[in-house]
Design a protein that fits this description.
Elements lengths: L3 H21 L12 H12 L2 E6 L1 E17 L2 E2 L13 E2 L3 E7 L8 E3 L1 E2 L5 E2 L4 E4 L3 E2 L5 E6 L4 E7 L5 E4 L3 E2 L2 E4 L6 E7 L8 E5 L11 E7 L7 E2 L2 E2 L1 E4 L12 E3 L1 E4 L2 E4 L4 E6 L5 E5 L8 E5 L11 E4 L5 E5 L6 E7 L6 H6 L2 E4 L15 E12 L4 E6 L6 E6 L16 E3 L7 H5 L4 E4 L8 E5 L8 H10 L2 E14 L3 H11 L6 E8 L5 E8 L4
Antiparallel strand pairs: 1-40, 2-21, 2-39, 2-40, 3-4, 5-18, 5-39, 6-9, 7-8, 9-16, 10-16, 11-15, 11-17, 12-13, 12-14, 12-16, 19-20, 21-32, 22-25, 23-24, 25-30, 26-29, 26-31, 27-28, 27-30, 32-38, 33-34, 34-37, 35-38, 36-37
């Protein structure tokens, strides 16, 4: 195998063996498929296997195989207290450094040392007891069991997220089962009347001590920098890895001014359709946000233009998705998406996804194959006196609320009694009716204001001129988090962050049980899936 020709022959033979191996577990590769497509085939096989899933910043997955974990990072938002104009309360979001650790069943990751922990939770001298040297992360109000390979009594100490001592648990003969109190983030242990630092210790979730398992751990650091991942109600920001599933490129779409009448494409002054190339005898699903009044799929044999006959039709004017299996002679997939110019064409196109298969899946922007990107459903603006400001009436003469224009897409509703889905460091979210009634708070304005302004009322500012209000805002910035009307998608280009995400993308689950924990000032929420162990 010394010559180049011999090496190339060997590589071809190896590639053929890999292809057959992939096909033996459910792949459908041919001799003409590119070597890169083998990865896609393996991803497809992975998706066919039963999964164990979990969501949170501290997750336990039961009955897992030793295989890849697939994850996406999700935002979260908290505010501890009620803000007022004069007493702001910070809004916390997922940002900065995020430390992610995975374990097997045994959560005891520490060394033992001679000594004890006193009733105040501090280290103390002892010649006949042992303690673990560091803090072990746990969930609050969760049941655990700790056991040891030698007979002894084990005491428990509980600590919060700042590692401040909370209380002591019951000291009992091992195995000792306990439930962590509210706000507990860490535990430590005292091993009574034993000084053998080689004793085997196991900490596990649940109320039963199981067979000892060696401690296993994988650790990952993800530094989000200034990126903020937020959450308001059911709306969340995400970091995801693209699959390339969306076949529709909205920025370079083939669009024609037409509709279909009697199975023939007919020119129109108001209706619009887009088309993409397709494969015959293939199933596609087209999904969208339900905004426009028309949503109909067609196929054609030749390039769609005025006068061309269609082969098929699937109508879904009131549906969020339609599925079509293309005709044997189909070469183009055609979609009627815009009824007339009164509809928001940009919003419609921004939500359309065309993908293979019969199931509509969550939207992914076009061109994101194997790329990391941020899906932002939450916006942020600092109201600092530089934005356009104008007065609006209240129910009391000469007292004013204020509209402030930020020029971006704010999710709004014409429901005047709906409390605003919003976070602000100086005001609570209220209804627009509340601001009219001189109740302090902030709310998005109605749809009539083009989804780009807020309405707020502050009693101390209610009789000021606009310039005075802007001066106040310049010294008392209002930081507002709000829901986007239309999500935005941005590819991650930071090299270090991409490397960290790729490393975490290689994380593995463990045989039996897999535990995952995230630490951060506000930890990211993980959406996780791992292969279920179907061979037990």
């Amino acid at each position: 195998m010394g010559t180049i020709a011999e090496k190339l022959t060997y590589l071809d033979e190896t590639r053929e063996k890999i292809r057959k191996g992939i096909n033996s577990i459910g792949g459908n590769l041919t001799n003409t498929d590119t070597f890169r497509s083998y990865s896609d085939a393996l991803d497809g096989i992975y998706e066919k296997f039963p999964k164990v899933t979990g969501t949170g910043s501290n997750i336990t997955l039961e009955d897992t195989m030793g295989a890849s974990i697939k994850s996406e990072l999700q935002g979260d938002t908290t505010q501890e207290g009620t803000p007022t104009p004069s007493s702001p309360v910070a809004v916390e979001t997922v940002t900065g450094e995020q430390s992610i650790t995975t374990w097997g069943k045994n959560l005891f990751n520490d060394t033992l040392e001679v000594g004890t922990i006193n009733s105040s939770g501090n280290n103390a001298t002892s010649t006949d007891n042992m303690r673990n040297a560091d803090y072990i992360s746990v969930n609050q109000q969760t049941t655990y069991t700790i056991s040891a390979s030698s007979n002894c009594y084990i005491g428990i100490r509980y600590y919060n997220s700042s590692k401040t001592f909370l209380s002591s648990g019951t000291t009992a003969e091992q195995p000792n089962t306990f439930t962590t109190p509210e706000n507990c983030k860490y535990v430590r242990f005292v091993f009574v009347n034993i000084t053998d630092t080689t004793v085997k210790v196991q900490l596990e979730k649940g109320s039963t001590a199981s067979e000892y398992e060696v401690y296993k751990e994988q650790s990952y650091e993800i530094n989000l920098g200034n990126i903020e991942l937020c959450k308001i109600g059911d709306y969340k920001d995400f970091i995801k890895k693209g699959t390339g599933k969306n076949l529709f490129d909205k920025d370079n779409a083939n669009i024609i001014n037409a509709s279909v009448i009697n199975n023939v494409i007919t020119e129109s002054n108001s209706a619009k359709m887009f088309y993409i190339s397709c494969e015959p005898n293939t199933t596609y699903t087209i999904s969208r946000e339900i905004v426009g009044a028309r949503f109909v799929g067609y196929t054609t044999n030749t390039t769609p233009t005025t006068g061309v006959s269609t082969l098929q039709i699937v109508s879904g004017n009131t549906a969020s998705s339609i599925t079509i299996t293309t005709d044997a002679n189909a070469n183009y997939l055609l979609v009627y998406y815009l009824y007339n110019s009164s509809e928001n064409e940009t919003q419609i196109l921004s939500s359309i996804q065309v993908e293979l298969g019969s199931t509509a899946t969550p939207y992914e922007p076009y061109g994101m194959y194997n790329k990391w990107y941020i899906e932002k459903q939450i916006g942020k603006v600092v109201l600092d006196g530089t934005q356009d400001l104008y007065k609006a009436a209240t129910g009391t003469e000469n007292y004013y609320r204020y509209n402030i224009d930020i020029g971006t897409n704010i999710f709004t509703t014409d429901e005047t009694t709906a409390i605003a889905p919003i976070y602000c460091n100086r005001l609570v979210g209220v209804t627009r009716g509340n601001t009219f009634s001189r109740i302090e708070g902030i709310a998005p304005t109605t749809n009539n204001y083009n989804y780009k302004s807020f309405n707020f009322y502050i009693e101390a500012l209610a009789q000021m001129a606009n310039a005075q209000v802007n001066n106040w805002l310049a010294s008392n910035n209002m930081i507002v988090y709000y829901i986007y009307k239309t999500p935005t998608y941005t590819e991650i280009t930071d090299t270090e962050l991409k490397t960290q995400l790729e490393e975490f993308d290689d994380a593995q689950s463990y045989e039996g049980q897999t535990n995952i924990n995230v630490d951060g000032i506000l930890p990211t929420i993980l959406n996780v899936k791992a292969l279920e162990n179907i061979f037990n």
